[in-house]
Amino acid sequence: MQLADRIDLVSPSLTLAIDAKAKALRAEGVDVCSFSAGEPDFDTPIHIREAAKTALDQGKTRYGPAAGEPTLRAAIAEKLNRDNQLPFTADQVLVTNGGKHSLYNLMMALLSAGDEVIIPSPYWVSYPEMVKLAQGVPVIVPTEERHGYKITPEQLAAAMTERTKLFVLNSPSNPTGMVYSPEEVRAIAAVLMEHPQVHVVSDEIYEKIIYDDAVHFSIGAVSPELLTRTFISSGFAKAYAMTGWRIGYLAGDRDLIKAATKFQGHSTSNVCTFAQFGAVAALTGPQDCVETMRQAFAERREVIYQMITSIPQFTCAKPDGAFYIFANMGALGMTSLEFCQRLLEQKQVAIIPGVAFGRDDTVRLSYATDLETIRRGCDRLRDFVAHL
Ligand SMILES: Cc1ncc(COP(=O)(O)O)c(C=O)c1O
Predict the structure, then answer these.
(1) What is the total count of domains within the chain?
(2) Containing domain of residue 261, as a range?
(3) pLDDT single digits (tens) 156-188
(4) Which residues, including other chains, have CB under 8 Å from residue 38's CB and lie 6 or more apart?
(5) Would the CB of 172 count as within 6 Å of ligand 1?
(6) How far, in Å, is the centroid of ligand 1 from the Cα of 130?
(7) Do residues 24 and 72 share a domain?
(8) What is the pTM of this model?
(9) Whose CA is nearest to atom 7 of ligand 1?
């Protein structure tokens, strides 16, 4: 069959090979320790589930407005004002099928063929692929481990060209777990202020999962002028353990939101109606569930960090946010894919090769799993490295 050219633009997911193998081993009854999941291992809090059930019983089962339920759009705008000091109104919010869909809609509504999008590496796997699907050009800027894998203002300035349309900022970061400090965000913003044609999308999906003294500071709050060029992409998956609900949002300039709504209206239409009422409950209900999960991640972070840093061949900074730990295994002299494949075959531990995020000398472990699995899996990992 002759497939569309655009399919050849996107790379197959390298992580799938590991994931498929891990699942096949599990199905055979093998005891696999998996650190591959990018999702909380908790159930969605009960009051959120109850709100969706009530909405179902109340007949919220029909098509809704493509941009989202007005109550949810208003609740999201209120949250952005309250938590992030971003004075958005409800008509500046588009409810999407997850954070991924919000980013995709943005790319499709903003980019013209040949527009450049600056993406610091390591990056979340889907950013470059989405840019390519929208006929844009991903401009990958490799960051340095000694800078905490964060792009510096100098690097950002050097990557700017006349074709630059968008800069992608992700803090807390997947895969590195790093959080840009308010000072670092301001320094990045200063570069953007010198390039008035450039927009920034801030992917803040992990904003509630941060540790110790780390602070989440949204780049849109730096100045009213920059806010007009800032898009916020976020969702409910990580903070509220709602990965399968598929609810996210895009917030920003009204014209762009209108354009993205038009695009969404001809592709997916509205997000599942009754699910949106669960999301309203998530934002307006008690927030202690978010803190309880954050504390569980914080405890796991301590354990996994101690265990990973006890492996002499690994270097690794303590993550400030999200639920990933990102280790450099370059000293071992093999590709990240080979390392992960052999680890899975020989020790039944599933981790993600850094090449998937643009860094082949690294691996990513998700600690969205129980402490027992973390201890057992890291023991096996240490043993594997010791016998290489
Ligand atoms: C950095 C980042 N952005 C966006 C998403 C998309 O999340 P979802 O589409 O599940 O809301 C993810 C999911 O893993 C992510 O890690």
Answers:
(1) 2
(2) 47-284
(3) 999 999 999 999 999 999 999 999 999 999 999
(4) 174, 366, 368
(5) no
(6) 13
(7) no
(8) 0.97
(9) 99
